## 1
Amino acid sequence: MNAEELIKDAANKIKSMEVRGAARIAKFAAECLKKFAELLETTNPDEFDEKMNWAAKTLLNTRPTAVSLYNAINYVMSYSGESVDEKKSSIIKRADEFIEWVKNAHKNIGEFGAKRIKKGSVVMTHCNSSAALSVIKEAYKQGKIEMVFATESRPRRQGFITVKELASEGIPVTLIVDSAVRYFMNEIDCVVVGADTITANGALINKIGTSQIALSAKEARVPFMVAAETYKFSPKTLFGELVVIEERDAKEVAPPEILSLNIKVRNPAFDVTPRDYIDVIITEIGAIPPEMAYLVIKERLGYALGERGEISISPKHFD
Ligand code: RUB
């Protein structure tokens, strides 16, 4: 596969959800940009930059909601160097740093999150989040989890991935349909979900249905915990941009005989949970209240407005 084919193929994998989940998409994009840079044969620095920009845009234009993809691409694309060789080694270094960031974050998130779970807990999760599962798995290892309720997560049924993953590790799990969340909420001690994006004002964007679970948890006074690496925080929202909610094909929701009727079908993939419904966000740098999202974006991701209102970006090292 040549360099261009590699990126086109990667973009298709993200679009078709063969590679899915905010953390996986981000890591995959960083890996692909690294491979793409390595494969480029040009010795002309301008041409090299142009090709890198094309690859970055192609990957970015796949799924609009998870800011982890933007942050991954932006991190790798903040490369330096004059010659092609210098640029390449800067890209490789930055991609490796980002990949390490993804890998290491889950360990801390698991440990910090598990501390918030009491012994004998019944925990509910939604969709399939590697960050949320790192909390659940660590809490289980510490003997704190009695049962995990996993939602089916229509229409793509990522809940099946979750139950397979938990069952393969011997963790007791109960699969429920999304509409059974409120029915079971009184049996739940804690909800743990992942994040596609956390906005500057502390709202959570995650798989469609998350906000209903949060609503139901609040009503039943069940703690609602979000597991989110700091690269899930959105710098763009600090500058006023609204998060784009991906709407996917109607075919994911209904079979042809239903679609052939004269009806409209809407299929939003994500929804917004306001910060008032969130007890804590577990990140790799600690358990923070949603109100601290602005500080994470500023201090951790290094985004700030310059004196003349220009956006300055100076990502830090993440070791
Ligand atoms: C996946 C989803 C997950 C987040 C967090 O949506 O909403 O909860 O991406 O996952 P989709 P992770 O299946 O549409 O990509 O913690 O693994 O990043």
## 2
Amino acid sequence: MSVTTFCHFIANRFVQSASERHFEKFSPVDGSLVGTVAEGGQPEVDLAVQAATAALEGPWGRLTLAQRTDMLHAVAREIDRRFDDFLDAEVNDTGKPRSIASHVDIPRGAANFRVFADAVKNVPTEFFEMTTPEGRKAYNYSLRVPRGVIGVICPWNLPLLLMTWKVAPALACGNTVVVKPSEETPATATLLGEVMQAVGVPPGVYNVVHGFGPGSAGEYLTRHRGIAAITFTGETGTGGQIMQAAAEGTRPVSLELGGKNPAIVFADCDLEAAVAGISRAAFLNTGQICLGTERVYVERPVFERFVAALRDKAQALKPGHPSDKSTGIGPLISIEHRDKVLKYYRRAVADGATVVCGGGIPNMPESLASGAWIQPTIWTGLPETSSVIRDEIFGPCCHIRPFDTEDEAVRLANDTPYGLAATAWTRDVARSFRLGASINAGIVWINSWFLRDLRTPFGGSKQSGIGREGGVHSLEFYTDLRNVCVST
Ligand code: NAD
């Protein structure tokens, strides 16, 4: 693997930090150096915001809707054309198996531009006719106008997918963006700069400043008063800090935050489908998906069978190199994150869990021994008060507990400060609708998981977020609604 230099992308130019500060990015697969990354500070954030502001008043702001959306379709085509480059970049940064990145991350990166380029063309406007006190007609109509420069702050688990999920609707609505990718995953945001150049997106429309959160590019971006709105995906605690920063200047925020998502398995379900679905929900992307399942409640008559079947699935996941076609599970994002996950693995044992499988670090060949590898892990027997049940772990693990009644299952599922997603497995149609209404989460999946039409609202309840993105809901966040009243 060659070592790369990741620069900021400001006004369509790749630039180093004025201070020449940089940091190193290591591979989660084998601990080798992937690249050096420019670390942005206040000067780089200032430059990026200036460029983004100028672009709003320049050629970007003068494009017609059709010209703008054509350009976003061209961005999607260019991502498709450079599919392998994006795949290499994402896999080098995250260590995830190529089979996952090629089916999930990269295609969704391109799809986000197509979906929002089309969605923005289909937003209706309001129109009201009224009569003035003098008996004349007056006409009110609504205009959706861009908010301005949007600050986009992203996590590392699905870097291209989650970044474009924000950048595409922001640009479709006529805004410009300054993106701060995760320090763990600088590559695809940088590569997208090359795509923007190639398809002729005007300078300043898409900007990237690399760096960390507090005291670095992330904090400077959220505090910058030239930023009109902030969209963030990441941990709930970070979301709170960003909300505080956005309060200066009363700027709107969209927060997509953490989860501790439940799955409920009823005895009447298709058990094979439930095991397959929950295996994906718990272990896909090495458990580093905000929508993943970490708490499973299974109706008592099928509890033992379910535990054994999920254990078999977990044990069949072979850790290995991303390019190896037989690899079933990649490493965690970093050794630091593995330390955090292992702390919960030890906590589970201390709190009295039965370790059904996993619980530690797998034996890896010498060449991969320095990677952030971890075993997929299943527990039973923990009290619901354990921090293993309460906290988001963000690793390939879940706890399984039996239940006896639907009411009990719903109560257990809802007993969490989070409310991002839930999945339930049953053949009872009436129960499906009851669960849709009674489970307190932004997304309730019945007999499915990670299945989404991108036009639907996406976001979390309780501490899992503020606001909804997806389809017209994204367009509501990325535009300001203005009423115009014309009196005749
Ligand atoms: P994180 O909160 O640690 O970091 C996310 C981003 O915020 C990074 O770019 C980081 O540099 C930046 N940041 C950190 N502190 C900041 C600050 N004070 N000001 C400005 N920026 C700051 O999250 P992570 O570890 O990268 O990602 C994992 C988390 O993301 C998990 O909690 C997961 O559930 C959540 N997540 C949520 C969704 C969702 O849609 N709800 C999707 C994916 C991930």
## 3
Amino acid sequence: MVRLLFVCLGNICRSPAAEAVMVHLLEKEGLGDRVFCDSAGTSGWHEGEPADERMRRHGKKRGYNLTSLSRKFIHPSDYEAFDYVLAMDESNYTNLAALDPSGRYHPKLHKMLSFGEGSVEDVPDPYYGGAEGFEQVLDLLEDACSGLLTHLRQEGKL
Ligand code: 4NP
């Protein structure tokens, strides 16, 4: 079982969307029982809340089911429990790296879009923007999830 944890700031927009896109892709590929996906936020500001209604609505239009409730990234148990910790942007990455000053878990920490084909490096925070921001998040995540699946296969993890 490969274990993937997607992380953003609030765990109500980008990381629950990443989790849902990846689960959908894995199920389509018949790999749903080989990979465990979860998500968390660095802030804990929205702990216990469902994903943002706008993110859920835009995801649903593409067939994604955003079901998880927001929770805070728990250091170090989340680093121990997961094989990949996938940060949505540079700020999330910096915060996650700062929780691990020894660098012990550094090999597990990646920026999500490092697995994408495009030149964009960060999934932009859609929280204060309009509808197009949520669509852009999904476009970027579909590309990166596909690249992540290819990576897992190339690494012999699937
Ligand atoms: P997320 O988006 O990190 O993609 O879940 C945000 C959600 C909430 C806030 C910021 C970003 N906030 O400021 O409450």
## 4
Amino acid sequence: MHMWSKTVCPILQNVAKTSSIRTYVKGEPTGPQLKTEIPGPISRKLHAELNAIQPSDAVQFFADYNKSLGNYIVDVDGNIILDTYNQIASIPIGYNHPSLLKVFQNEDNLKALVNRPALGVFPGDYWPKKLRNVLLSVAPRLPNVTTMMCGSCSNENAYKAMFIAYRRHQRGENVDFTDLEKESCVSNKPPGAPDLSLLSFHGAFHGRTLGALATTHSKAIHKLDVPSFDWPIAPFPQYKYPLEENQRENEAEDKKCLAAVEDLIQTYNKKGKPVAGIVIEPIQSEGGDNEASPEFFQQLQKIAKKYGASYLIDEVQTGCGATGKFWAHEHFNLESPPDIVTFSKKMLTGGYYHSIDMRPNQPYRIFNTWMGDPGKIALLEACLETIKNENLLDNVIKVGDKLKKGLLRLEAEFPEKINSTRGRGTFLAVNAATPALRDSIIAKMKQKGVLMGGCGDQSLRLRPSLIFQERHADVFLERFRQILNEH
Ligand code: PSZ
């Protein structure tokens, strides 16, 4: 087939086995340093100003992005905070990385940024080469890539590609649309707008736009008041930890969930809402860092194939190295690539990799004004070079190991306060005993100069950038221990 299908992530292949002890970003602060409580007076003043313009209740503090550097975010009150959360898991190589700051000093990159094209109709001469050299250089065994703006719209358009492919398979490859299809679709009616469905999982998060939201099931606040589809929602495995000690129960959990998937597909096929695709995260992130085994993902792929449903793996949060492999689903050894892999966040541009089968036969079916942004590809190019040159996946594996061992030690020391340490690479989480304790730990860690994230009802999650080093892990673990002691 295509030359790219053989290239399993060249970044991984080129990693030299050396590690470095210097900081990856020169001049990075040596530790957190607090001047005020957080938010401090300047943050509070700006908050009042912003709140008069737009609802801003979720704002935690205002950042000084001139001063933030490497793993440290600096706020407008001069507080230096170790960031293990990184703008909701979306900063790949820390703040103000010199390789990224240089990107727009290059005139070609600057002009690609300034003259932002409608990529679907007037791409620049550089575009095929950039896609090949940048995005396809890390493709997860899929030959095509379509760029988009964000995670939600990547999923949204990928869902459309799955429906379009499903109907093409039903209709026959080169069969034209009927007049009735063309008339009925414009009024949202079948057969042109067919009653198809996608299967997703309880606890999933795939975005907040209308289609993506129909497959998001993590929190009520995301969904209240918004109409949605009657689509099948399957149980996602809920494991007992430590995994090594609960193998039999967890395998039974896999089987139970897979049986439910098959039941649901049959039910929805029968009731006239055939399942055109299955969408799943490699680790359910917003839903609480819920993991499922490689076998679960392998079996799920088999079920998808059996029922002619396509298989979408949403790597918006897990992609770009944080699990120790460039794509988290590489941990699963799937017998063949998924049909679609969506990405955004640390990839800096949104988009999706896809099989040839997921290409619509007609133009303008997956389309919008911008279809991505060449400026973001220029940044991603520099970012991928840095990941490769600095062996950052090796760093993630090494630091992740230290962090996980540290969390397990703390779990043993404070078993009544935290449990269920889990994850891969530096993509790690631990549960607090109660939701209130989780919230309190995050609040107190911030006042100690460490920014953390929560997910699910009572999980604490780590989402450091790929340049998080052992020294940063030490700062985090030491302060986490102090806070656990204080509770
Ligand atoms: O509250 C929110 O809207 C949040 S907090 C974290 C996210 C969204 N993550 C975004 C996300 C994701 O984690 C997965 C697995 N898939 C899709 C999305 C949507 O991406 P964006 O936010 O770029 O639209």
